[in-house]
């Protein structure tokens, strides 16, 4: 009788153990099947933000952030870099002809939008005190822009002003008052 009781208790414990194991296994499986996110989805409250997170935290750059996301460049710009990004303000985008931004944000124009945004990105870090008159920067799109000193301050192509420069964990963001269109 003692052997039967021990056998029954063992069977019950084994069954309960298997049920719990199945529940844990099901839970583990459901978290493994979630859609993977890119580098921009990494949560890090301690380190300096990367260029995408920095731009995302500034409401004056919301149009740029939408454009970066629409062009599928958020993951690239969240990687190690280093990058120098010339970030046009919302007001800079507003200076473009009416309907331009809305048209560029359409899915069928992702390539064109990507080309324009790539013209705002330089691989490497250049701080404002490192700019010099006539300096040419080879941008990610393969074209160059020129830094021109006006009243001792660097401008892009002689007409776009740098309003602020903010270091990021993977580069630097120069907030600018114009959209830099490739020539």
From TrEMBL:
Chain ranges of the FAS1 domain: 48-180
Coiled-coil features, chain-numbered ranges: none
GO cellular component: extracellular space
SMART domains associated with the record: FAS1
Disordered as annotated region, ranges: 23-46
SUPFAM superfamilies documented for this protein: FAS1 domain (SSF82153)
Biased composition, class Low complexity, residue ranges: 23-35
PANTHER family: FI19380P1, PERIOSTIN-RELATED
Protein name: Fasciclin domain-containing protein
Source organism of the structure: Planobacterium oryzisoli
């Amino acid at each position: 009788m003692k052997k039967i009781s021990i056998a029954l208790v063992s069977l019950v414990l084994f069954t309960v153990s298997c049920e719990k194991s199945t529940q844990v296994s099901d839970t583990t499986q459901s978290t493994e099947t979630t859609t993977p996110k890119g580098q921009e989805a990494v949560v890090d409250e301690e380190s300096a933000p990367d260029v995408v997170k920095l731009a995302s935290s500034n409401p004056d750059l919301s149009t740029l952030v939408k454009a970066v996301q629409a062009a599928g460049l958020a993951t690239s710009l969240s990687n190690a870099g280093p990058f120098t990004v010339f970030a046009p303000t919302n007001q800079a985008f507003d200076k473009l002809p009416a309907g331009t931004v809305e048209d560029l944000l359409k899915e069928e124009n992702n390539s064109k939008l990507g080309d324009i945004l790539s013209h705002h990105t330089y691989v490497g870090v250049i701080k404002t005190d490192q700019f010099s008159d006539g300096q040419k920067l080879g941008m990610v799109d393969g074209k160059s822009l020129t830094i021109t000193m006006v009243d001792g301050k660097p401008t892009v192509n002689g007409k776009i002003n740098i309003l602020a420069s903010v270091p990021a964990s993977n580069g630097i963001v120069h907030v600018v008052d114009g959209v830099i269109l490739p020539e």
